[in-house]
Amino acid sequence: MKKLGLDVGEKTIGLAISDALGWTAQGLTTLKWDENNYTTAKEPLRKIIDENEISEAVVGLPRNMNGTIGPRGEASQRFGKWLEKEFKVSVQYWDERLTTMAAERVLLDADVSRQKRKKVIDKMAAVIILQSYLDAKQ
């Protein structure tokens, strides 16, 4: 079964998906949503989860540099609980400290323009979250 990686922000959710064996993560898309209204993400997520037979979701958990969980981390945990209840998938949380910076670095090294980077940064962060989770589990 495939796994879904999510980089949950206030306005967008970056999505990545694993291969069937759970070895590699590929970027999928970036959803626009309203954090104050989870239903704005419900149908696009349902379609992805159903079409890809997702059994597990890995939600990036932003932590402060000292390891504590702040407001953004709490928001990610609320989203993860909703995801688990709404779609009946197992949810894991994965430390996402510095993933956006790592994604930015990869895109800069690939000489991707600033305009294009803005469009794919969340998806790339989701790939890094999911791939680091998959690597740790092998």
From TrEMBL:
Q: Name one GO biological process term.
A: rRNA 5'-end processing
Protein's cellular compartments = Cytoplasm
Name the chain's protein.
Putative pre-16S rRNA nuclease
Q: Which GO terms describe its cellular component?
A: cytosol
Tell me its EC number(s), please.
3.1.-.-
Quote the InterPro entries the UniProt record gives: RNaseH-like_sf, YqgF, YqgF/RNaseH-like_dom, YqgF/RNaseH-like_dom_sf
So what does this one do? Could be a nuclease involved in processing of the 5'-end of pre-16S rRNA.
Keywords (alphabetical) are:
Cytoplasm, Hydrolase, Nuclease, Ribosome biogenesis
Keyword check for Lipoprotein: no
Which CDD domains would you find in this protein's record? YqgF
User: What lineage is on file?
Assistant: Bacteria, Bacillati, Bacillota, Bacilli, Bacillales
In which broad location class does this protein mainly occur, judging by the first location in its UniProt entry?
Answer: cytoplasm
One of the entry's Gene Ontology molecular-function terms is: hydrolase activity, acting on ester bonds
Top EC class, one word: hydrolase
Q: Which organism is it from?
A: Halobacillus andaensis
What the entry lists under SUPFAM superfamilies is as follows: Ribonuclease H-like (SSF53098)
Q: Which family does it belong to?
A: Belongs to the YqgF HJR family.
- Record domain YqgF/RNase H-like: where: 1-103
